[in-house]
Amino acid sequence: MTNTSTKLPTYFLSHGGGPWPWISEQREMYAPLAASLRAIPAELGVEPRAILCISGHWETAAFTVQTSPQPSMLYDYYGFPAHTYSIQYPASGSPELALRVKSLLDAAGQPTTTDAERGYDHGTFSPLAVVYPEANIRVVQLSIRADYDPAAHLSVGRALAPLRREGVLIVGSGLSYHNLSALGSIGREPSRRFDEWLTETLVDSTPEERVRRLLDWEQAPSARFAHPREDHLIPLMVAVGAAEQEPATRNYHEDSFYGAITASSYCFG
After folding, report:
1. Fewer CB within 10 Å, N or C, the chain?
2. Considering its fold, how many domains does the chain have in total?
3. Which domain holds residue 169?
């Protein structure tokens, strides 16, 4: 892929629950998140050539990159209205970008496999349907590794950093708080405490301190309450690694997600 003078930022997005953009009854609840997602094209100022999305909904033994030129849809949720099992986000894939990703990771000592069958999961198609509703940007997914090793995912981000000058938008898609059994008032204070630590870590710390704190994230206030399994936090490590020395901003924040939860998204660079 061709280098450009523009270096795109990276993002960690709290992607919301299931196929929420297609559920009219949830429109009001998701209005703050939707507004933050719709603002991204203007924040970028240029249209990406492609998007590389690291979704918390795809975990594999080894890092794996999606190679289909036209990925299918993966309805990896349950209990939602019938029409949400036939929605389409018809963005094309990019075998070229997939091979570039594999080459960068292999060269960095992170052996990577490919998957020509994997479709877009809702960690990718739900937020991107709001950011780019016309589905006119090529999208490739990269899995997280099932051991959830923060250092390995930071390293992957570092290896992928050259893509930012090649017109590729790197998006880590998860949730800053992901305890589905505690989405009500029981999660109010734990989510606030963890979010406060996360923002201090990402926005207010030096690059070196940011990495140190992320490697030791389990020591954060309410860390294991906020993330009983860290599948929705680990995509953040890739976004940070790809913009390791650059400042962060919080581009989405609310304290009433699902009525009580504090949640945030971040931009790096």
Report:
1. N
2. 1
3. 10-268
Mean pLDDT of the chain: 96
Q: State how far the Cα of 63 lies from the Cα of 84, in Å rounded to an integer.
A: 29
- pLDDT tens digit string along 158-205? 999 999 999 999 999 999 999 988 888 999 999 999 999 999 999 999
Reported in sequence order, the residue ranges of 124-223 that DSSP labels E, i.e. its strands, are: 138-145, 168-174
Q: Tens of pLDDT along 78-113? A: 999 999 999 999 999 999 999 999 999 999 999 999
Q: Would you put residue 229 in left (φ > 0), alpha (ψ -120 to 50) or beta?
A: beta
Rounded-to-integer distance, Cα 123 and Cα 58, Å = 9
Strands of the sheet containing 261-268, edge to edge, are: 112-115, 63-66, 138-145, 50-60, 168-174, 10-14, 261-268, 248-257
The residues near 247 (Cβ < 8 Å, ≥ 6 apart) are: 203, 268, 269
Residue 78 C-alpha from the chain's centroid: 21
CATH number at residue 124: 3.40.830.10
- Residue pointed to by tokens 């990896």: 76
pTM: 0.96
